[in-house]
């Protein structure tokens, strides 16, 4: 059976994760509280819904506990990101990946039980630096 993914927050990061999962044949539920963002995924995601994920009742009604992996891609609203992650963990979602804006945010996300915490800008900066270093060594 195909793995079921849900992506919460369809900004540049969440939107990109969502598209890549879909392009690789995964089933994806796309969620955002912003109707315009959800509209962009209506035709490509398996399902796309407008929802505020800080409301536990809403997440329960979406059957979120049946998803194998949920990606919390809410950035700027740190409170919403933490609360959403906490609810997902409490509901028993097996794998929760959350995006952190900074080290403090990451610490709290880890504490509330996120399985994996990513910092897209920082992680990409490190990868690019490594790539540049290895390229320089090869060019030498
Ligand atoms: P990115 O840096 O990935 O481009 P962004 O700057 O567009 O993101 P963020 O503030 O990081 O926006 O939030 C990402 C998405 O999360 C937004 O589309 C926003 O509407 C959505 N979002 C924020 N809070 C909630 C919430 N409580 N429930 C559902 N979606 C939310």
TrEMBL record:
Coiled coil: none annotated. Residues 2-118 form the RCK N-terminal domain. GO terms for biological process: potassium ion transport. GO terms for molecular function: monoatomic cation transmembrane transporter activity. This is Potassium uptake protein. It comes from Halalkalibacterium halodurans (strain ATCC BAA-125 / DSM 18197 / FERM 7344 / JCM 9153 / C-125). The lineage of its organism: Bacteria, Bacillati, Bacillota, Bacilli, Bacillales. The chain holds residues 1 to 140 of 220 of the full protein.
């Amino acid at each position: 059976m195909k793995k079921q993914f849900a992506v919460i927050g369809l900004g540049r990061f969440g939107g990109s994760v969502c598209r890549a999962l879909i392009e690789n044949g995964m089933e994806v539920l796309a969620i955002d509280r912003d109707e315009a963002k959800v509209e962009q995924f209506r035709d490509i995601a398996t399902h796309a819904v407008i929802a505020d994920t800080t409301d536990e009742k809403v997440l329960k009604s979406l059957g979120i506990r049946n998803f194998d992996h949920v990606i919390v891609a809410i950035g700027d609203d740190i409170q919403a990101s933490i609360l959403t992650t906490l609810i997902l963990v409490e509901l028993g979602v097996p794998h929760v990946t959350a995006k952190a804006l900074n080290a403090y945010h990451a610490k709290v996300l880890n504490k509330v039980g996120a399985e994996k915490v990513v910092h897209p800008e920082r992680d990409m900066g490190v990868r690019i630096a490594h790539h540049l270093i290895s390229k320089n060594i090869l060019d030498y």
